[in-house]
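For homework, think about our next protein:
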Amino acid sequence: MDVRAQVSMVFHLDKCIGCHTCSIACKNIWTDRKGAEYMWWNNVETKPGTGYPTKWEDQDIYKGGWQKKNGELKLRGAGKMRGLVNIFHNPHLPVIDDYYEPFTYKYLDLIESPAMNDQPTARPVSLITGKPIDIKMGPNWDDDLGGTPDYARNDPNLQGLTAAEQEAMFQLERMAFFYLPRICNHCLNPACVASCPSGAIYKRGEDGVVLINQDVCRAWRMCVTACPYKKSYFNWGTGKSEKCILCYPRLESGQAPACMHSCVGRIRYLGVMLYDADKIESTVAGSKNDQDLAQRQRDMLLDPFDPEVIQAAKENGVADSTLKAAQDSPVFKFVKLWGLALPLHAEFGTLPMLFYVPPLLPVMASLSEVDNDEHAKNMDPVAKHWNDNWLYDTSTEELWATIDKARLPLKYLANMFSCGDESKVKDVLKKLMAVRIYRRWKTVGDIDETKAMAVLNDVDLAPETIEDIYYLTSLAKFDDRFVIPAAHREQAIEMLEFTGDAKGSAGFGVTEKPRRGW
């Protein structure tokens, strides 16, 4: 068992308000410079929608991620042979129009324009060519447009929905949308790392952060094609590829990444997850179909309280402080303990370590359309009793009916978060609904206690667990949402000393081993 530590994230989509504060914080720190104007390492998309770059989820266009051939994993659009053939012309790269041509405005025209009969305007100019342009696209061009023909109706996740279901989604009275914040997933099986001909992309052994060595990068841009989430970008100014670095300088000083620290809705959680690196290939290649990939990924994540896991982790060089951080990790609770968070498009095969709590839409505690009188006639008499002529029963059927009748079809959410398996998304939504029903009984009192307890039994959650979920999703403090492991700078210094001693000696006459890399 090859136990390693991975800094992982959870985004709670029910709490995202689409303010883009996270995107601006990241832009101001990392991509506010020449050649990076069009880059958004953190971006927030409106779903349904085509996203940024346009239709990034459609791998028939971009050929990102992994695929199985003859029982082996192969890169879909990169690799040795494909890379050699396409090394000077890659037909699967997104072009600038798929992102947007970055622009600014000639604000001086507002100040320096001479007196005239018309109001002066600030013309948009390209940040690439410096010439005036007509703006046709932007990083959040379809923001809040939940039903437009150009964006929402071209969402790749609508595949599998009937024409009637799609049409119902865009009826004015049923229209709904939610926000999807995205950063680099820092995957366990990153296609960008495998695709790079120069070996410039690597995964840090101590925390799993995926980085690009700017000195080694030769701008072959295979990483842009290989990443199915399109989170590797080409800087046309420096001639290098760049990507989200998870603000590792901040992590090493005990601070949360900028996008997470600035999040207004407090939707973001960060913590350590332990995983068995020996199971990476078998987890992806051994799946019978795409639908079980999300569960197989959850199964390969390890319990930090298991004595065998702890022993194997220590033997592999995982620090005690990292193990403690893994035990306190909110990501472990959301993903492994409570089963509330799911990976985005696990079928891409990269084993992303950014998980999402699906949105619960609409916000309802019961369904008024259910005919309780008709329901009572068909009930077991033992399962009901009367109190002041009001029917109380232990059935929760009318409460769970709200899940199936939500404005966003389960199939749509399943296409995003569970490879099309609607049952997994439904299980998560039922747990989220159970938390709301329990808390409503406790604080408002308009739901019968018997029914509230029956709801908890349906989802197999104890009241203590419900309270823990409620606390972490609504009242959690900064240190509860971000459990950042110590960086252990002393080990980095030891590695430098180890390297220096090795260069000046005949052999490696020390017992200290360098930290495991990827």
In short: The first strand starts at residue 3 and ends at 12. The first helix runs from residue 21 to 30. The two ends are 16 Å apart (CA to CA). Residues 258-357 form a domain with the Alpha-Beta Plaits fold (CATH 3.30.70.20).
